[in-house]
Give the backbone structure.
Amino acid sequence: MSDAPRPGTTVPDHRGRTGLHLTGRDLDRNPRVRVDDVDLLAAGWHVLRATTFRYRRDDGEWITQTRETYDRGNGATILLYDPARRTVLLTRQFRYPVYVNGHPDGMLIETAAGLVDDDDPVTAIRREAEEETTVRVDEVQHVFDVYMSPGSVTERLHFFAAAYDGSTRTGDRGGLAEEDEEIEIVEYDVDEALSMIREGSIQDAKTIMLLQWAVLDGPFARR
């Protein structure tokens, strides 16, 4: 068995990253948690770690636990809405993870979204909105931030909303060809979109959350 250091630790991985085994070792914000060890399991496009830590229970006893975390960075998503026409602009694209887990065809209806990468969330979501829907937005409203799968995924998702003028919109395709994206742009009446949640045609969590926000507290709420 090779004793060579694992890529992503003291030697760069294929993305040039090092020190991936150090994340979390310096955490001290919670006095009931002491991180003992971080094992880098995989460094593909994203990072899989197994962290061993001690946790002090309510009765004072310290117990040792190990948790795997999947780090894909943070993301942002946006609901594009036309207040005059009462429509929302969504996307449809193939998502293999949902296809392999029971979705009929893997063609998921979603709000535009993407990883923040090195940008701030507002800059990132403006970029993603234009890439995926061809709609350019300047003024965006921050709605809330959510940990979408806190049991194993570290990602924090920033939710936004912005108005668009559907009467001037053209085209029904978005996405970047260099990233092999094939994205269909779909427009629905907001009430139709809500019905699609109830019947199971819209199953994406971030999309459901933003659509329900839109009618409870957002642009389509009854004042």
